């Protein structure tokens, strides 16, 4: 046929691949610029409070009181760090926070992972019932007074670590995300492991968990940050200062600085100044800031993999 001898129209994708040039439409360029501007604004709004906190931590009280400290320290001052770091109660409460966070995260991950794995099996009898019980707790709670009576009187956990780490040990949101992740797990791997002689617990511990690092790291970060920042449970169920987490120590500093109470621990009779608050807050958030970069690479993938289904 005559049409067979006509020159063929060059393939646009092939030409772009050969030349190495990909032309962007004007609309896409506008989108990229707008997207970059929005992201820069979000970063600025997000980072400003932390940068301002660091600036206040290294500034003199007079400049802070005058409102002259924004992004850079004024009147460089390290005396406040010496005061806070020299307080034995601060280090005791700091160690308590580490202990509560580690123990609470281990308990929470053990409960969440086992519960989610069981719920991910379609053949589980009463599966809908157990899912319903978990979801029910997202909308209805027992109330503050019944919880206090249960934990402080019935269980006898007043002035105990368990009053901090046990009541919130299972997050239903984390449970549902992990359940969805396990539902997408290849069943062939579990079947092959079972044929090789592994029990259900062996499959879970030796096959499923090692291949679920992304979602496990994400849930660990969620639980650890929540426990590290928690203060209300300790404030409610504890009255022994040596058992407080560092967040309650920080809360007492802020309360003292606003004139609601005085702190006389470690020979400090004067009211706590604003830069002492900033120093304590900075020291409190540093461990989480140092930990996050090592887990961040799992963060997005863990949430996305667990939210594809369910």
Describe the structure.
The protein has 310 residues and is mainly alpha-helical. Helix content is 68%, strand content 0%. It folds into 2 domains: 64 residues, no CATH class; 228 residues, MetI-like fold, CATH 1.10.3720.10. Helix 4 crosses helix 15, helix 5 packs antiparallel against helix 12 and helix 9 runs antiparallel to helix 12. Keywords: Cell membrane, Membrane, Transmembrane, Transmembrane helix, Transport.
List keywords for this structure.
transmembrane helix, MetI-like fold, transport, mainly alpha, cell membrane, MetI-like_sf, disordered C terminus, 310 residues, transmembrane
Helix and strand layout, with pairings?
Elements: H1 12-19, H2 26-57, H3 61-65, H4 79-85, H5 88-119, H6 127-139, H7 144-154, H8 162-165, H9 172-183, H10 187-195, H11 200-208, H12 213-229, H13 232-237, H14 246-257, H15 274-306
Helix pairs in contact: 2-15, 4-15, 5-9, 5-12, 5-14, 9-12, 9-15, 10-11, 12-15, 14-15
């Amino acid at each position: 046929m005559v049409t067979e001898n006509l020159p063929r129209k060059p393939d646009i994708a092939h030409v772009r691949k050969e030349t190495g040039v990909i032309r962007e439409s004007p609309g896409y360029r506008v989108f990229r610029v707008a997207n970059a501007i929005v992201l820069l604004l979000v970063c600025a709004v997000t980072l400003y409070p932390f940068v301002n906190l660091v600036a206040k931590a290294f500034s003199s009280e007079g400049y802070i009181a005058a409102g002259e400290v924004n992004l850079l320290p004024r009147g460089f001052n390290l005396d406040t760090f010496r005061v806070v770091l020299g307080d034995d109660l601060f280090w005791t409460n700091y160690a308590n926070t580490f202990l509560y966070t580690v123990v609470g995260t281990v308990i929470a991950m053990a409960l969440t992972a086992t519960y989610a794995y069981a719920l991910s099996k379609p053949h589980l009898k009463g599966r809908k019932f157990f899912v319903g019980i978990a979801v029910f707790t997202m909308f209805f709670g027992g109330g503050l007074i019944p919880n206090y009576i249960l934990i402080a009187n019935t269980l006898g956990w007043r002035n105990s670590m368990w009053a901090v780490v046990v009541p919130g040990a299972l997050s239903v949101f984390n449970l549902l995300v992990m359940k969805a992740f396990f539902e997408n797990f290849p069943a062939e791997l579990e079947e092959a492991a079972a044929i090789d002689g592994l029990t259900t617990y062996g499959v879970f511990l030796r096959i499923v968990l090692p291949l679920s690092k992304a979602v496990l790291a994400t849930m660990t970060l969620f639980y650890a940050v929540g426990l590290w920042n928690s203060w209300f449970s300790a404030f409610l169920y504890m009255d022994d200062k040596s058992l407080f987490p560092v967040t309650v120590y920080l809360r007492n500093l802020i309360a003292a600085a606003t004139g609601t109470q005085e702190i006389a621990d470690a020979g400090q009779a004067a009211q706590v100044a604003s830069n002492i608050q900033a120093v304590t807050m900075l020291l409190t958030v540093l461990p989480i800031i140092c930990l996050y970069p090592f887990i961040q690479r799992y963060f997005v993938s863990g949430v996305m993999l667990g939210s594809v289904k369910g």
